[in-house]
Design a protein that fits this description.
With about 300 residues, the protein is α+β, with helices and mostly antiparallel strands. It is about 15% helix and about 25% strand. It is globular and about 70 Å long.
Length: about 300
């Protein structure tokens, strides 16, 4: 595998040009990283849902008041656990019954969304060991309230800053959270996941978790620099010496052309307000050309986005 050095081709206020090309070697590495699931050599009948670990065929956990689904009518998130390692055939059967498969839950379970009428058919699916509600309690991170915050404005605030992953339609989800009393900070409609960033008091958490669109709620992590003290290493390898920056080359006002496996231009590093696609008016990526590659980051490890 070979890579060419990035070249500064022209100057423009703080923007970057990415060019996506197919990389056979990169694709091979991605395939190898997928690996295979290795059984842990133990009884694979439990569900592992954060702080709730239980065998649903034996007993269900006791849940706090307000964090149970007392009325599960309509389209709701649901868990379907099989008695065998699941594969594409199981997924196909669920989808044929009207379920939308959202993801995998350990062990041997799918997280789906499905309406009341179609849920009645789940128990008759061959191999299904248990099916039941994805309870609101399972959707709240056990780390909420345990984070040590450096920002005094957050640590002293009455409301927490939360990231809510939703199953679909983050705009509608944001409206629901507003109606509950939360303040919507940001809506992120990403091809791989839909997020709503909100500020909400702890008293609102049960109501937020009970909403059918809610997948998972966690406290937004703080971001801060960790490598700002080693900036001299790749510039001079002499402590404190930054000759590249000293010549005014800081990335500001420069256009760099890169060729790699593609870029996730909706990540926080590149995303434009409103999720606008790359183009001349984009704040970071003013051009995105394909040379037989993909229109997005085509590597599961995010190689192009990292580079």
């Amino acid at each position: 595998m070979s890579f060419s050095r990035p070249q500064v081709s022209s100057r423009h206020p703080n923007r970057t040009v990415f060019r996506g090309v197919p990389l056979t070697a990169t694709a091979m590495i991605c395939a190898l990283l997928l690996g295979s699931t290795v059984a842990r050599g133990e009884d694979m009948t439990r569900l592992w849902l954060g702080s709730y670990v239980f065998d649903p065929g034996v007993s269900l956990p006791s849940l706090p008041d307000g964090l149970r689904l007392d009325d599960a009518t309509g389209t709701q998130p649901w868990i379907v656990q099989f008695s065998h390692p699941i594969d594409e055939r199981d997924r196909t059967v669920l989808e044929a019954l009207g379920a939308e498969v959202q993801g995998y839950l350990p062990d041997f379970a799918y997280l789906i969304t499905i309406d009341t009428a179609h849920r009645a058919t789940l128990a008759a699916v061959p191999g299904v060991r248990w099916e039941g509600a994805f309870q609101p309690a399972y959707r709240l991170s056990p780390q909420i309230g345990r984070m040590e915050l450096r920002d005094p404005t957050r640590s002293s605030a009455a409301a927490r800053t939360l990231v809510v992953r939703v199953f679909r339609d983050p705009v509608s989800a944001a409206d629901l959270y507003r109606s509950l009393g939360a303040r919507v900070v940001e809506i992120i409609d990403h091809p791989q996941e839909h997020l709503v960033v909100i500020e909400a008091a702890d008293a609102l958490l049960p109501a937020i978790a009970r909403e059918p669109l809610t997948w998972y709620v966690e406290e937004k992590p703080e971001t801060f620099l960790l490598n700002n003290t080693t900036k001299w290493v790749i510039q001079s390898n002499a402590s404190g010496s930054t000759p590249i920056w000293d010549h005014g080359v800081t990335g500001l006002g420069e256009i760099v052309t890169l060729m790699d496996s593609g870029v996730d231009y909706n990540s926080c590093y590149f995303r434009e307000i409103g999720n606008a696609p790359p183009g001349p008016a984009h704040r970071k990526i003013i051009d995105y050309s394909l040379f037989g590659g993909v229109a997005y980051d085509g590597c599961s490890t995010g190689h192009g986005s990292h580079v």
